[in-house]
Amino acid sequence: MHYIRFLKPPRFYTNGSQTSVKALVTVTTDLGDDFFHAELKLEVALLGQSNSTFERKTIGWKPSMRAVWVEITAVSPTLIRDTPSLLVSSRRSTKADEIRMRHFPEVLSACTRVTSSGEAFGVGRLERKLRTRSTELCIFEEMGESISRHIWDAATALIAYLDQTAQAKCKQNDSLDPSTSSFASLLEMRHKCGLRILELGSGCGIVGIWMATSFPNTQVVLTDLPEAMEILGINVNHARVAMGSRLEKAVLDWDEELPEDIVTRTFDLIIVSDCTYNCDSVPALVKTLATLIGQSFRALIVVSMKIRHESELVFFDLISEAGLAKLGKASVPFFSAHEMATQQPGEAADVYVFGRSKR
What we know:
With 359 residues, this protein is of the alpha/beta class. The chain has nine helices and 18 strands. It has helices at residues 77-81, 153-170, 181-188, 206-214, 229-238, 260-263, 282-295, 314-321, 337-342; strands spanning 2-15, 18-28, 40-47, 53-61, 68-72, 85-89, 97-98, 107-108, 110-113, 125-131, 136-142, 196-200, 219-224, 246-251, 269-273, 300-305, 324-333, 348-356. The strands form four sheets. The chain has a seven-stranded mixed β-sheet with strand order 14-13-12-15-16-18-17, sandwiched between helices. Strands 5-2-1-8 form a four-stranded mixed β-sheet, with no helix packed on it. The chain is elongated.
């Protein structure tokens, strides 16, 4: 899966009597280590406050590109005063990108506000709109080439998996993977007394926010390092949580002792997605998981991973040494419509369910 990213925020430029909007964008992977290797039509739309389209243009992306300037000319002075947004997508639509099992977008769209001064809201952040069968999300992430505090593949895979598992359990679907039945049973609790969820390494918070917006009476704590608190706060404030649900954020450094407000709680579910890519941090992550399970001994740990190198496999050795057992595994292939039509194999993420040994 690939992501449209703004390398430079869109700005208004005036040349004589004509005003235009320009932005530098790329189409890259979640780690930013590769670029889209095929021709692509980028649909660029200038949107007003009510999400109505004022101007539109198609820009060509070539396989050899690493970035491309997008531009819309002859912008109305009235529109400039309305602080419009610039949407760049691989689809000629302003609707949210759909995320579900066996149906992932080939390229995720991106939108941000246009400014002439560099001070308006949206500078330094871009917005992605995603929808599943249960809810629609608006998630902000940081702009630029840094890989921190962006949406990553394993997070979207986990959302698709959670959505399918919850839907199948609601419908008493006999096709539900038996290896994840313990997790499906836990999700069923949402109809009774709700869930208490802790997410580690939340980044921009997409998975935990999806849980809080999809399930009523769910308490979700999003955690990460101090530098993630700003983007987490923005996304928490914009989230439309389900009835009775609550979202909060907290600093949690795996190399430090657990904060008191975390130690004094018990959780039903601990979520981790795409947090094993840096093998140096894996021992601290597993130590944190073991400590949390020690205080929430009935909790389940759900880990979504897209293994990128063999060094990540140390995670499983450390998990076993910590007395945690694998209760289930599901593979989530990133099938786009193009891959399904051409029967080309896609990449995949794996979702693991762990719990205390000898439960």
